[in-house]
Write a structure and sequence with these properties.
carbohydrate metabolism, NAD, alpha/beta, eight-stranded parallel sheet, 11 helices, 10 strands, NADP_OxRdtase_dom
Length: 320
C-alpha cells in the first residue's frame, strides 16, 4: 500500500500520508524507518531538533541497499532549527543535516519555528535546543526575510527541491509572501479536532500552499511530556464522536482522525512501531467519511494548542 500524492507549487509531488520522526528513539530509529518503507511509506518528516537524522539516514540507506526503494522514490523532509536562522548559517547547517542523513538533497526543507535564536556551533551542542548553556533564551537579530532568502538559495544550489514553513501564523505568511522569490510549498502546523485553525488552513490553501498536520491525535503525543493540558483533556482516540465514526465505517479511531484531515487535502505524518498500525495509518485515503461525520468532528474544536513554546516554560508567545 502507498499514499496518493498532492502536487506542490514547486511542481513536485508529495505523499499525502507520511511517517513522522519526532520522538523516535535513536536506538530504534533506523529499524523503524526501514519497517515503514517496507510497509509502503515514502514520506519521512524529520528535523535537526529531533536528534535522530543519522539514524534516519541509516534506515534509508539500508532500504536502498536492499532494493526496497530508490532515492527518487522517497520524499525526505527536514527542518532548520531556530539557532541557525542567520543568513550565513543556513547553508552550512543544511549541508550538515544532509551529511547526517547521507543524502544529496532534501525533498522539502522547512523553517521549524518563526523564532530566530543566537547561533550555537554544532561542535559545541547539537541539537542545541531552545536555551543557551545557562538555560536562558538568547534571540538573534535575523529577520524572516533574511532566513527565507538563504532558504531560497538552497533551492538554487539544488540542496532542497522545495522549501516551506512550520508553526507560522497567517500574519507572518502574508508578510513572507510579499518578499518571497520562491513561495513556500507547505505549511506544517499542529492540527487535530481540538485545534482546527480553520481560518489559517483556508487562507493557506487558497494561496496554493499545502498544509501538513502534525499531532493528528491531539493530546496523545504530549502526555509523556507531563503537560497538564494533555493529561486533563479527553483523549481523541477515546472520544465518543471518533469511536462512533470508527464503528460506523469499520475503521480504527486513528484512521478516522487521519481521514478527517486527508479528506480535506491536509497531509498527515503519524508514526507507529506496530506493523498493523503502520498499515492502518496508510489506509486513510481510499474511503470517505460522511458529511455528518465531518460535521460532528468539526464541533470538537476547543482551540487547544499543545506544541507551544509557552507550554515548555519559554516566554515566546508566538501564537497569541
Amino acid at each position: 500500500m502507498s499514499s496518493p500524492t498532492v502536487k506542490l507549487n514547486s511542481g513536485y509531488e508529495m505523499p499525502l500520508v507520511g511517517f513522522g520522526l519526532w520522538k523516535v528513539n535513536n536506538e530504534t530509529c533506523a529499524d523503524q524507518v526501514y519497517a515503514a518503507i517496507q510497509a509502503g511509506y515514502r514520506l519521512f518528516d524529520g528535523a535537526a531538533d529531533y536528534g535522530n537524522e543519522k539514524e534516519v539516514g541509516q534506515g534509508i540507506a539500508r532500504a536502498i541497499k536492499d532494493g526496497l526503494v530508490k532515492r527518487e522514490d522517497l520524499f525526505v523532509v527536514s527542518k532548520l532549527w531556530n539557532t541557525f536562522h542567520d543568513g550565513d548559517k543556513v547553508e552550512p547547517t543544511a549541508r550538515k543535516q544532509l551529511d547526517d542523513l547521507g543524502l544529496e538533497y532534501f525533498d522539502l526543507f522547512l523553517i521549524h519555528f518563526p523564532v530566530a535564536l543566537k547561533y550555537v556551533d554544532p561542535a559545541e551542542r547539537y541539537p542545541p535546543g531552545w536555551t543557551n548553556a545557562e538555560g536562558k533564551i538568547e534571540f538573534s537579530n535575523a529577520t524572516i526575510q533574511e532566513t527565507w532568502q538563504a532558504m531560497e538559495s538552497l533551492v538554487d544550489k539544488k540542496l532542497a527541491r522545495s522549501i516551506g514553513i512550520s508553526n507560522f501564523s497567517a500574519q507572518l505568511i502574508i508578510d513572507l509572501l510579499r518578499h518571497a522569490r520562491i513561495r513556500p510549498a507547505t505549511l506544517q502546523i499542529e492540527h487535530h479536532p481540538y485545534l482546527q485553525q480553520k481560518g489559517l488552513v483556508k487562507y493557506v490553501q487558497e494561496e496554493g500552499i499545502v498544509v501538513t498536520a502534525y499531532s493528528s491525535f491531539g493530546p496523545l503525543s504530549f502526555i509523556e511530556l507531563n503537560m497538564d493540558s494533555a493529561h486533563s483533556t479527553p483523549p481523541l482516540l477515546e472520544h465518543e464522536v471518533i469511536k462512533s465514526a470508527a464503528a460506523k465505517h469499520g475503521k480504527t479511531p486513528a484512521q478516522i482522525l487521519l481521514r478527517w484531515a486527508t479528506q480535506r487535502n491536509v497531509a498527515v505524518i503519524p508514526k507507529s512501531n506496530n506493523p498493523t498500525r503502520l498499515s492502518q495509518n496508510l489506509d486513510v485515503t481510499g474511503w470517505n467519511l460522511d458529511q455528518s461525520d465531518i460535521d460532528a468532528i468539526n464541533k470538537l474544536d476547543l482551540g487547544l494548542r499543545f506544541n507551544d513554546p509557552v507550554n515548555y516554560g519559554f516566554n515566546i508567545p508566538i501564537f497569541v
